[in-house]
Amino acid sequence: MKKLSTYKKQKISENLEYFFNKVSEDDYNDGLVWYKTANDIVQNLSKKYNFQPLVVANVLSALSPRNKWERNIFDTEQVLKAVNNGKDHESVKVCTFNNNKIKAFELAQGKREGIEYSNSPKTHSFVRNIAELNENFVTVDVWHTRAAFDKMIVPTSLSASNYDDIRDITIKNAKKHNIKPFEYQAIVWCSIRNN
How do the domains of the chain map onto residue ranges? Predict the structure, then answer.
């Protein structure tokens, strides 16, 4: 996908604002606390099983494909517990792909590093958002992309520069509302999911 024009960037900003302003009060409140709640979960698992928060967040992220959030948390705890007890990936059943389970074990065992931003900005951003509440990253997932492009043609994937543009637009829009970028993204996610 080619670089976004000034016009398209303006449209993306307007589209995100449209969904942000269309959100119900309940969805707004849910979005506002979603990452804080996820961070609390990561911090608690970190302390309980003696892993760094970034490791816990990477394990949680590795186990997330096609996995419901509540089950994802359960699966993450099972992996951390198994690694602490010296067990391998075959000792745990999870609700995602087997390769992801193996990846989660390798992350918890220190045999694999987390995803770098340059390789997968969405995954890296998600991990940094939930592990650290880091305001420099925005999780531009499929829902945020749909909201950003709304009635324009939604790309099947984003180039690195397009991802960074949407991140920057989201950060700028969040500042207008005096909230954190990850809060803005979560509120937009709630809005587009329900609209």
Answer: 6-194
